[in-house]
Design a protein that fits this description.
Helix 7 (213-235) runs antiparallel to helix 8 (240-257) and helix 9 (264-276) runs antiparallel to helix 10 (280-295). This protein has helices at 24-28, 42-47, 51-59, 76-89, 100-112, 188-206, 213-235, 240-257, 264-276, 280-295, 300-309, 319-336, 353-360, 364-369, 376-385; strands spanning 13-16, 35-39, 63-67, 93-98, 125-126, 136-140, 152-157, 162-167, 175-178. It is an alpha/beta fold.
Length: 392
């Protein structure tokens, strides 16, 4: 059988700069874009964060329609609503503006304009979307999901109480704008949760079975930036250097994990987040220490390196003792920002674990990337370890 080697994919164009989002009209005008649809959320609408961006489009003679009702936990039905709007309006481009939820809905809605009549549930998995759809441009307002750099859309299947992932090469953005000004209003708690999610993307990409030298370089640089800047952004939301550093870290982590997939923390979080209606960054952080602890023997050199990036001394320790310091590093980081571990603090009970484990195992693409194999009994142990405080 022929071997085609590894493939690295990313958005076509990435523009980075303070205030660059206000130049969107000038950026798009030469491309003969006449009409766009903004996909965003009620919080953005209340803050009017998108108004300067939309004004730049209107000043350039580009018509703008807006859908601003994306929920924090977008569902299959909500995606279908936006798909119907796009199919009726058919703009030249779809703009996802906001956090990962808005960008994920923009992403799946845009691609489905080229696939009318397809059932979203039948597209769950990797590269099952038959055709491309409308081009997209993404502008993140949080530094965490990395969704602007990925080809993944996560939607909540309310009926089955699990989050589903649709992955397609047709969902990469044509253009991404990275503007730290847009993250200045992000409150401390969301700065923490989204920043920790970016860290988890980087860690899981780094230890992934599918990791390559390219993804390793992106993932380790993202970890370095988060170690340097997340606490600063949490302490002072107006620190422009820290905000830029975190947006860059989130982007790099997104570029890494879209080429490797994430791992066990995300697989468990898809089940836990859907069951208890938890924000994505919160759910992934709750699952991180136990999954890292479980995975240490699968990639001990890389986990030791993560500990060293955070400044934890590994000299004189065994390989595995040094690797275990990575778990301490991430829990110390989270707790320095007042994060509270323990699933029981968020509505979970230990007798739910038998139901949650098989839902977690539905995330096959994530477990396939995980550095250590699992079965249902092992996933149950990971979930049980996620009750109570860390470090244990």
């Amino acid at each position: 059988m022929a071997s085609f080697g590894t493939v690295f994919a990313s958005p076509a164009f990435i523009r980075v700069g303070e205030g660059i989002s206000r130049s969107l009209g000038e950026i798009l005008k030469p491309r003969n874009i006449r009409k766009v649809m903004f996909v965003t959320d009620p919080g953005i609408a209340t803050l009017k964060l998108d108004e300067p961006v939309r004004k730049s489009l209107q000043d350039a003679g580009i018509a703008v329609s807006v859908y601003n009702q994306v929920g924090a936990d977008p569902t299959l039905d909500q995606a279908k609503d936006v798909i119907a709007l796009l199919q009726a309006d058919m703009p030249d481009m779809v703009i996802g503006f906001g956090g990962g939820s808005s960008i994920d809905v923009a992403k799946i809605s845009a691609v489905m304009t080229g696939n009318p009549g397809e059932d979203l549930r039948n597209l769950v998995g990797v590269n099952l979307v038959p055709k491309p759809g409308l081009p997209t441009l993404f502008i993140p307002t949080t530094a965490g999901t990395g969704s602007e750099a990925t080809n993944i859309s996560i939607l909540n299947d309310v009926e089955r109480q699990v989050k589903l992932g649709i992955v397609s090469e047709y969902m990469y953005a044509h253009t991404v704008l990275i503007d730290p000004v847009l993250t200045l209003s992000l409150p401390p708690r969301m700065t923490s949760w989204t920043g920790l999610d970016a860290l988890i993307h980087a860690i899981e990409a780094y230890v992934s079975r599918a990791a390559t030298p390219l993804t390793d370089s992106l993932a380790t640089r993202a970890i370095e930036l988060i170690a340097k800047y997340l606490r600063k952004a949490y302490a002072d939301g107006g620190n422009m250097e820290a905000r830029q550093g975190m947006l860059t870290a989130s982007l790099l982590a997104g570029m890494a994990f879209t080429n490797t997939q994430c791992g066990g923390a995300h697989a468990c979080a898809l089940a836990v987040g859907a069951r208890y209606h938890l924000a994505h960054g919160l759910a992934t952080t709750l699952m991180l220490p136990a999954t890292m602890e479980y995975n240490l023997i699968g990639a001990p050199e890389k986990y030791r390196h993560i500990a060293e990036i955070f400044g934890y001394p590994t000299k004189g320790l065994s390989l595995y003792d040094g690797a275990a310091l990575a778990v301490r590093a991430v829990t110390d980081l989270a707790k320095s920002m007042d994060f509270v571990f323990g699933l029981e603090n968020y509505g979970a009970a230990e007798d739910h674990v038998k139901d949650l484990a098989p839902l977690s195992l539905l995330g096959t693409r994530l477990w396939n990337s995980n550095p250590r194999n699992v079965d249902q009994a092992q996933v149950e142990k990971i979930l049980l370890r996620s009750f109570g405080d860390w470090p244990k």
